[in-house]
Amino acid sequence: LGIPTDRSWRRLGKRARAVVIEGDGDGWYGVRGFFDWLEGRRYKIQARVQIARYRRFDPCETCGGARLRPEALEVQVGGRHIGEVARMTLGELDGWLSSLTLSPALEARGGRLREALAARVGTANRVGLSYLSLDRQVRTLSGGEAQRIQLATALGGVLTAALYVLDEPSVGLHPRDVSRLLEVLYAIRDQGNTVVVVEHAPEIVAAADHLIDLGPGAGSHGGTLVAEGSVDEIRREPASITG
């Protein structure tokens, strides 16, 4: 390639730098070509690890990391633009929404939107996500955090006369967050909805209004209705392992 290896990057000329980065078009594909090749192999964990070692994310100097156009940042509600709101934690956002005072005109146009947003933020806080900020990148979330976000998304609406079916929602939750999950489920029930939960966690089973115990074993050893009724009725059923 004709590039001196005893010189630092800063001392290389423009042509030499271009060859290193972009390649020479005659066998050497360049650093950019190498990473383009790696991007095409992201389905392999080794490629993703290799990319992560050499990739860095820097905030945009224009928007300060808000990832929004300047025109969008000009619009403010309660003295804050959407970029500043996105940097709040969900706990801080809950408090800000509660204290937000709008003019009669804005209240008429955005009051219902604020109520819906407050309901979703409140649900996320009750399942233990109050420390997360809205601008948190998805790739940095743990498996449990991602699951709780999905749970909050599903449960954070204000529907009525709806049927919710949840398959082991307590998986990945810290034990202290199970009680918060139950508060969310109770609130959904009290809004006039039906909540069907498939669960093994004793705390959630004990909190049910009505239990259907299937068994007696798992897989091919189950599928039989062992008992049905309130928690006390299940406990009095000798054939029920749950009781």
Give an overview of the whole structure:
This protein is mostly helical and 243 residues long. The chain has three domains: 9-53, no CATH class; 59-142 and 152-157, ABC transporter ATPase like fold, CATH 1.20.1580.10; 143-151 and 158-235, P-loop containing nucleotide triphosphate hydrolases (Rossmann fold), CATH 3.40.50.300. It has eleven helices and six strands. The chain has a two-stranded antiparallel ribbon. Helix 9 (175-190) links the parallel strand 3 (163-167) and strand 4. Helix 1 (14-22) runs parallel beside helix 2 and helix 7 packs across helix 8. The longest helix has 23 residues, at 104-126. The protein starts with 13 loop residues before the first helix and ends in an 8-residue tail after the last helix. The mean pLDDT is 87. It is found in: Cytoplasm. One of its GO terms (molecular function) is ATP hydrolysis activity.
Assigned CATH superfamily of the largest domain: ABC transporter ATPase  like domain
* Strand element count: 6
CATH class category of the largest domain = Mainly Alpha
Residue ranges: pLDDT <50 for 5 or more in a row? none
Task: Going across the biggest sheet, name each strand in turn.
Answer: 1-2
Distance between the termini: 76 Å
The mean pLDDT is 87
Main sheet makeup: 2 strands, antiparallel
Number of domains: 3
Strand pairing plus helix content: what structural class?
Answer: mainly alpha
β-strand amount = 5-15%
Computed Rg = 27 Å
Count up the helices.
Answer: 11
